[in-house]
Write a structure and sequence with these properties.
By secondary structure, this protein is an all-alpha fold. The chain has helices at residues 3-16, 21-38, 43-55, 59-71, 77-89, 93-103.
């Protein structure tokens, strides 16, 4: 299983079983960190890492990672959506809305996923 699919499976299992969340999130992050060591400019790895960081409420770190993916030219809907999630959580609403708008222009990659986002909580 590739690191993106394995990380996604860990996150989903953690969402389904709160007792597994902390362990699974850390394991997903470790898999993605290893992938980024091998290919630091892989926008799919950066996008997945951004999702994992958002899902752990580590939004400022997620912004940094996701902005790097954008700077590298990501045209993945999930990159821009996840950046919007992170920016919204950091309190930069206008930038978040711009990222959400950009996300609508792209298709989502099959390798990545979107971070959990509850707009009612904002």
């Amino acid at each position: 299983m590739n690191p993106f699919a394995a990380s996604r499976a860990l996150v989903l299992e953690g969402f389904a079983d709160a007792d597994k969340w902390a362990h699974n999130a850390a394991a997903a992050e470790a898999l993605l960190a290893e992938a980024l060591k091998k290919a630091p400019e892989n926008v799919s790895a950066l996008t997945c890492m951004g999702a994992v960081l958002c899902d752990q409420a580590r939004y400022r770190e997620a912004v940094d990672v996701l902005q790097r993916a954008v700077q590298l030219g990501s045209i993945d809907r999930n990159t821009h959506f996840n950046l919007g999630v992170a920016l919204m959580a950091c309190g930069t609403r206008d930038k978040a809305l711009a990222a959400f708008e950009r996300a609508q222009r792209f298709s989502a990659s099959n390798e990545t996923w979107d971070a959990y986002f509850d707009p009612q909580a904002q």
